[in-house]
Amino acid sequence: MNEKTKNKGGRLKEVDAELVEKLASIFCTQEEIAYVAGCSVDTLERRFAEVIKKGKEKGKASLRRLQWQSAEKGNITMQIWLGKQHLGQRDNTINASEIKVKVEYIN
Predict the structure, then answer these.
(1) Lesser CB count within 10 Å: N end or C end of the chain?
(2) Helix or strand or coil: residue 78?
(3) Nearest Cα residue to 42 out of 30, 57, 27
């Protein structure tokens, strides 16, 4: 799926929207996408904002799926992280000012 856009000379230049989406899905910056796609960042912002948004959302879903699969395979670190993110779980910390120590001297 290509979209034509005008370059500085006023001529139409094709920009591959599928490439833009794929690059966005691996979280490339707009500058990187523009360079690879052969267009300006302004063109991306004007013409491909929805394509970039869709790519980023697909990338997030893909990453989440991989994290979930990792947790299902027994990755304890991922299980803990997902628990903190989605279940409100947290580490319990002890405040040093709350600790009382009894010291006995033996002669």
Answers:
(1) C
(2) helix
(3) 30
Please tell me whether residue 7 adopts helix, strand or coil conformation.
coil
Residue 52, Cβ density class (10 Å: 0-12 exposed, 13-18 middle, ≥19 buried): buried
Look at residue 2 in the predicted model and tell me its pLDDT. Answer: 60
Closest CA to 89 of 102, 79, 75: 79
CB-based contact 41:34 (threshold 8 Å): yes
The answer to whether residues 57 and 88 touch, using CB atoms and an 8 Å cutoff, is no
Residue 88 structure tokens = 């409100």
Whole-number mean pLDDT of the chain? 89
| pLDDT on residue 16 | 96
- Does the pLDDT of residue 89 top 70, yes or no? yes
Q: What percent of the chain has pLDDT over 70?
A: 89
C-beta atoms surrounding 79 within 10 Å: 16
